[in-house]
Amino acid sequence: MTSIDNDPVFTSLCNEKTLQSQKEGFFNEFYHSVAENFTGKSARWLTEVYQKVTTDAGRLRLIYEDPVVAYDVQGTLEHVEPVFRGKDAKFSWQRREQALKLLGENKLQQALIMACQAVMRAPCQGVDRYIDKGLTLALALWTRAEVFIRLLDGKRALQDLQLASKCGLPVKQNADYYARVAKCYALMDEMGRAEVATKLFHQLSGHNDYALTRLKDDMEDLRVLKQETPSVEVARTLPKLAGEGESTEIVGASTKIKLAGSKEDPRGRYVVAAADLGPGEAILTEQAYAACLYPKYFGTHCNACFSRLVAPVACPDCCGVAFCSVACRDKACATYHRFECQYLDLMIGSGMSILCHVALRIVTQAGTPQKVIAEGKMLRDTFCAHTEHRDPEDHFKRTLMTAFLLRCLQKAEFFGQRTTEAPEPNEQELQVGAVLLSALQSLQFNAHEVYETRITGEHRFDTAKVQYIGVGIYRGASMFNHECYPGVTRSFLGTAMILHTSRPIPAGALVPENYGPHFLRQPKPTRQRNLRSRYWFKCDCRACIEDWQQMDKLPAKPRLRCTTPDCGNALSYPNKPSQRTVKCNKCKKQINLEANVKMLEASDQLCTTGAEMMADERVDEAIELLKKGITLFAQVAVPPHKTAHVAEESLRSCFADKGNANRY
């Protein structure tokens, strides 16, 4: 990959998209109000003043101090105030009543939706004593627990009951509470604990034998229904890394890959194979350094781990985000969310891109300014920013966005209680701002979109569709260079990225990732334009040099490898049996391609059978057959070849099915 001059117009559009995703957001107005100051007599301010400051911290300081822009910058930032959707006890009560009505009509899924809304909007215990005597949240959880019992989900029902107890629900003399607990344990097939809860119910009900008999009958009915209902939840775990443990130089990586190159190398640092790699090997399982959901998924996925929400747990103060568990909520509220909570709606309203949110998350999850500053050097060393090539106007916009985010941090008391309300940063705040500004530049080139596989019908592959739900930054994965014909396939489990090899890669060879433009889906001119303008390099991979065709235009047969050891030449496929002995124009030997033809046919058959296993939803068998077919192809032929590439894409689908996959 070599750096080149970019298409200025398209590059500007790409750059703007990575900073501001909504034109109607108020940040656009903020920028134009400030930019008006360096037109006319001050038209050269950007190039003759701003651009001559060589550090991010220096440029950030400049916009607060230089009289050309300082008045409008500080004047706007002084108006930053909390904007968030708070709790509403009355709304929660209304949704709870609707849930109970739907429950009586046996409309369980609709009842669950209402009960979840009741939980999300309910204030904490004692906040609003005029409604439910301050127990709105506890009663919302109590109602949702009953819905889950009816849905045969004992585990989630029990979690809600326990949480309701912590939120003030009276349980010591509450026979109904222990009746529900007993049902939960019965559904979980924990009969010992169910028996203890049953005895407590019997005791608290005044030893009502009739009520006890009814409870035991209900528990047995629930157990029978549970046994007759197939479980749809599948426990998913990260795969074991190939090789001998984890690399010491690449975060989350296998010892079968290593770093090559240097910062001075035109290709930078990049990943190569430390040993021969076959298809389907797990070479990276890396937790995100920082990750953020797209706002449209705030109500459907956990804000912390990206799990699909079933029983959402709310932030104690806002209704803007949800969590899959108390553990995720408590972790978030102890770190990043306590600084983002009251300003998240404001930031979304600014029109800022999700990359801006990830940059902020890098700061807020650190918890303290000191830790941000300490990690700043590591972040700059790991993630390229290409500051020296950035247009001064684009850099100024990012500096202005940094000032806005820094003001949100000031107001959220990330730096503690300040002695002044003025937005101008002190030295510590300036250093944190410099980390933010660096991240706003480097994330353009290093962030990865996190996806899930959405299954909308009965068949897990025929109706599967990739849906991007958020963005993450990964220290190890950022080391992989791009090729339009990748050597790895990317999937996710929560926010963790998983890279499997998709084809054989010999020791010492580049292990390429794909940044989006794939030769199967985009023609060369489109790929080159996108890569130049979005990532600022000209791709010179094999697919570009040889101008491989897209999927629907690939030749029916591939070129075959010369059988002479170390020759490496590729020979045209013999269309007739009489043409299977040819002279290689490289090693000058007569080559019999009969064996290669038969092995290619065997490879195609393995790939076809693998596809049939996918049709039968026998995923593990499909993976093994596809791996064998791809391996065999690489031994006797060279890409491009439609059957082999379809098999590589099928392998990606199989691994994605083992990650974030949800039925809708």
TrEMBL record:
Gene Ontology BP terms: compound eye photoreceptor development; methylation
TM spans (from-to): none
GO CC terms of this entry: cytoplasm; nucleus
Organism in which the protein naturally occurs: Anopheles culicifacies
GO MF term list: histone deacetylase binding; methyltransferase activity
Keywords: Methyltransferase, S-adenosyl-L-methionine, Transferase
Keyword Iron on entry: no
Keyword match tRNA-binding: no
Taxonomy, superkingdom: Eukaryota
Protein name: SET domain-containing protein
PANTHER family: RE32936P, SET AND MYND DOMAIN-CONTAINING PROTEIN 4
